[in-house]
UniProtKB/TrEMBL annotation:
Pfam families: ALKBH8_N, RVT_1. It comes from Oreochromis niloticus. It comes from the Eukaryota. This is Reverse transcriptase domain-containing protein. Signal peptide: none annotated. Residues 6-233 form the Reverse transcriptase domain. Residues 239-280 form the Alkylated DNA repair protein AlkB homologue 8 N-terminal domain. One of its GO terms (molecular function) is methyltransferase activity.
Amino acid sequence: MTSLNDYRAVALTPVVINALRSWSTDASQQPSCSLDPHQFAYRANRSTEDTVATALHAAVSHLEEHGSYVGMVFVDYCSAFNTILPHKLVVKLQHLGLPYSTCMWINSFLQGRRQSVRVGHRTSSALSFTHRAVGSVHCSTLSTHTCPPEHTFVKFADDTTVMGLISRGDESAYRDEEQLSSWCKANNLLLNTSKTKELTIAFRRKKAEIQPLFINGDCVERVASFHFLGVNIEENLSWSVNTSELLKKAQQRLYFLRILRWNNITQRLLVSFYRASIESVLTYCICIWYTSCTVAQRKALQGVINTAQKITGCPLPMLEDLHNTRCLKKAQNIIKDTSHPGHSLFELLPSGRRYRAISVRTNRLKHSFYQTAITRLNAATKKCPSCHS
């Protein structure tokens, strides 16, 4: 570190302001407010896993149609949190049905705050933010609230994904970049086309050349895989890149587990370290990718757990058991959340005990999260009818 420019600010606001921000966020997410169900950030029982699952389910469901393909555009904004105008957010809050007094309080909260940065014993001069809602939760949840209806959007904070579900070669809505550009200008958002990527998923028998996508005159780079919210999605919907990344991270952490074992750390602490640093890596978004992995990929991942088991000297949960447990828990949370985009997919049969399976034509949809979750729920109900909730 040679100067203050080498540091990156982590927190710019005191605890009291963060508490007020949390309160104002809760106020804007009351049941009476019709927030976008496809915005998964800062909402109870929602995570990046829900975001990825929703996007992939939309893709694989559409690919069930003959001759269809999917274009996913991962939009990047230039300093998205710093370009939003607070008065435009207030207008959206009013459209959501919040009382006028609450909207004005939030508007006052977002503007005119004096903030400074302290590094060690050095404190910067205070600056007053009068034109931008810097670092506010409202920026991400409301800035993309009214995206163009011509497109399907999946959002987590400012990470916005445009889903182009194309049938019979009709790309008119997907390629109408003017709609997206105009919407961004109206909401004071700047598109960073150099970091915006396109991923095309197509399994058509007749391979036809797909024309490149242009936004504001710039060609969007088409990639074979993309790191989307911590998960590597490939154009062929295989999970080889994602599995390789998981193995690499987990094996690196096994080294530290061995170091702890050599230093005679207690077994309880070894297991705690394993669960925090290795199991958490192996199980990130496991509900999405596990059933679509090959047998070889599952064995490779299970091999990491077997090695950790030998190091710790005690039995550890198998990866398949972890997947089943988390898949059931995720499904039960979605069933309880009527505002979740995937809630309607869990439809009870007239018996009231089992859920209707999704009609599938390909293994892509069969091995997707929602179909797997329904299968697991029905199997659990069969084993223990009284456990159905």
